[in-house]
Design brief:
Length: 558
């Protein structure tokens, strides 16, 4: 046979040799492709343990402690990976069991008896039980530890039944109580000998021991003491299954531009939330998934009717609401990454009413003002009623997004004859000198709630003054009654009715103009798989089921 091949080689011309070689190559490639296709059809890709995920965050970690981490997104993100809690949120934003194995609620809705999962261990190998839970919530309630979460547990009595059972007793029924139990649990054996005055200064705040899916490994600092990178490693004994990704690393940056630059240089594989306007700056778009989550944070114009005569007029507030082009705000400022709102109830929430139209109605707004006696002065473009001008000041923070929103609202309201003066302030100045004292005509600001919202502190008349969050100083007896009932009502159909009643009251009284909610944008490399979150109550919600994320795969028979 070899001799025949040699003879054939002598007989064929160069052109014929080339054609034969090409045909043989095509046959070989086709065979390989067929084998590959056959293999792919018979097998499927499944997650494989290993690999590293590197995420970039703006800011610096300071307190990797669930009782102190609420003032910093960097701290909150890291703490959510390191610590477990009695309850947590699922991919739709609903409360589900975490460390809690089961729970019961008394008939009067005042007592919650919670059984703790057995077999859970801390990252140092010690056993976790109800004593750790009891210890954590006692610290949280103690004012000397200065936890910002203390308010949610005031007036709650806590007692141990045994090593795996704990009871929370409330003075009054509160249907949202389980959300107060989503805070991470501290290990008693680590923290019990640390005095309250040293709690915030303890070394364990940066060398934490938790029971979550990832455990602290190491961090690196620069010469100024700033943390550049912090590494977590998979906790193999995690009670919900060892995470697939072996290393979870965070790099820290001073601002959004530095963060995106690092992503473009492939120093990191994902970024904590970025403003919509920055999406265009991502260069490697083909290898990036922009995960969009609905987050219950709404932005509104809150009217202070006690500070401005024109805003005390019902027709003026209604006309201002009708004169807002919410879609223009979303398209121009959020680049389409948001949802228009006419109340604090989102379309994803039970009880949402879509009857309240969010579309702009300039002519309708003008007619309402005309009928109410607000006459347009053609020389100034501003309406007046008697000696009162339709003019007011709008204050907001120096965040670019809110600056742009305020300027665009000023332009929109000028079309119906309102004269708006925009004042931009630093966050600290706004909080201390305006919000706390309620010294503003109108305020452009945001409020964060949950998908099972307790709106009492935002709209009940008892919350009109600091530290309450009723920024419109809204007072309505019917609304108060609805808000009080919502706190105690467990019948879901009646809760839906209450939410709809509240929306009707707010639509009629117009204490605020609800604008929009910005989507939470989470860019990550396409190699990062298993991200399932949809609705998140807070930024840490993006890490729902993080132990099931993966960056490596292997193939197995179908």
């Amino acid at each position: 046979m070899p001799k025949n091949w040699k003879t054939l080689g002598k007989v064929l011309t160069f052109k014929e040799k080339f054609i034969v070689a090409a045909l043989l190559l095509i046959i070989a490639v086709s065979f390989v492709v067929w084998i590959g296709s056959f293999y792919l059809n018979l097998t499927k890709a499944v997650p494989k343990a290993g690999g590293e995920y590197i995420e970039g965050l703006v800011g610096q970690p300071l307190y990797l402690n669930p009782l102190l981490s609420q003032t910093s997104e960097a701290d909150s993100d890291l703490s959510s990976l390191i610590y477990s809690s009695l309850f947590k949120y699922d991919q739709s934003g609903n409360v589900i069991n975490d460390l809690a194995d089961s729970y019961t609620v008394s008939d009067d809705q005042k007592e919650y008896t919670i059984s703790i999962k057995k077999g859970v261990t801390w990252h140092d190998g010690k056993t976790l039980n109800a004593n750790d839970v009891f210890f954590t919530y006692n610290i949280l309630q103690d004012p000397s530890y200065k936890s910002p979460l203390r308010q949610g547990l005031q007036g709650v009595d806590i007692r141990l039944l045994d090593d795996y059972t704990i009871v929370f007793s409330l003075k009054n029924p509160y249907t949202g109580f389980l959300e107060n139990l989503t805070v991470g649990i501290l290990p008693k054996h680590i923290w019990e000998n640390i005095a309250p005055e040293k709690f915030a200064l303890a070394e364990n705040n940066l060398h934490p021991i938790g029971s979550g899916p990832y455990m602290f490994s190491t961090f690196q600092k620069d010469t100024d003491g700033n943390i550049l990178t912090l590494q977590l490693s998979a906790f193999k004994q995690y009670y919900q299954g060892s995470p697939y990704i072996s290393k979870f690393t965070f790099n820290f940056y001073p601002d959004d531009s530095s963060l995106i630059d690092a992503y473009n240089k492939k120093e990191i594989m994902g970024m904590g939330s970025i403003p919509p306007e920055n999406i265009k700056d991502i260069k490697n778009a083909k290898s990036t998934n922009i995960h969009e989550f609905i987050i219950p944070r709404y932005f509104s114009i809150f009217f202070n009717q006690t500070k401005n005569v024109a805003l005390a007029n019902d027709s003026v507030r209604l006309a201002l609401s009708m004169g807002v082009d919410r879609q223009q705000l979303i398209d121009a400022i959020l680049h389409g990454k948001g949802i228009a709102l006419t109340s604090p109830i989102f379309p994803q929430m039970n009880g949402y009413k879509d009857e309240n139209n969010s579309k702009i109605d300039i002519e309708g707004a003008k007619k309402i003002l005309d009928d109410a006696g607000w006459v347009l002065d053609n020389s100034t473009g501003v309406r007046k009623k008697g000696s009162t001008s339709l003019a007011f000041e709008l204050v907001t923070t120096d965040w670019p997004e809110l600056n742009q929103t305020a300027d665009l609202l000023k332009q929109q309201w000028a079309k119906i004859g309102a004269d708006v003066t925009v004042r931009v302030l630093t966050v600290s100045d706004l909080q201390q000198n305006y919000i706390r004292t309620r010294e503003y005509d109108s305020l452009l600001f945001g409020q964060a709630i949950s998908f099972n919202p307790d709106l009492y502190s935002f709209w009940h008349s008892s919350q009109k003054h600091d530290p309450g969050l009723n920024l419109s100083l809204f007072e309505n007896k019917d609304a108060d009654g609805v808000l009080e009932d919502l706190r105690q009502q467990t019948d879901q159909s009646k809760r839906v009715e209450d939410y709809q009643k509240l929306q009707d009251i707010l639509a009629k009284e117009v204490p605020a103009v609800f604008l929009y909610s910005r989507n939470y944008l989470y860019p990550a490399n396409t190699n990062v798989q298993g991200i399932t979150a949809q609705n998140i109550n807070n930024p840490t919600g993006r890490f729902t089921d993080v132990n099931k994320w993966y960056v490596k795969t292997s193939r197995v028979l179908k």
